[in-house]
Amino acid sequence: QVQLVESGGGLVQPGGSLRLSCTASGSIFRINTMAWFRQAPGKQREWVARIQPDYNTNHADSVKGRFAIDRDNAKNVVYLHMSGLEREDTAVYYCNTYPTLSYWGQGTQVTVSS
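Given the sequence above, the corresponding structure tokens read:
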């Protein structure tokens, strides 16, 4: 059974930091590239960052230098460390495999506001 459970979102001031976590089913986590995506109000879902099973990473230009994706293969958890948050980062954040599955978790809301 596929499981993707995101957590760690919240309300943060501009310039602040958050760490998002995603627990995934072991069956899909260990052999797959994992990724974070986000969807802002009124916009399409967009890719944010991805990490391969060997820990190689890629980040979207919009978050490069501010966000960092990481994974714990022993715990089946993928993280998104976010710093220097901007109002434009406000969105619901989702994790998934890369390429994505048809299944999506509930996401976690990140709101950047003063």
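Helices lie at 26-29. Try to locate this feature in the token string yourself.
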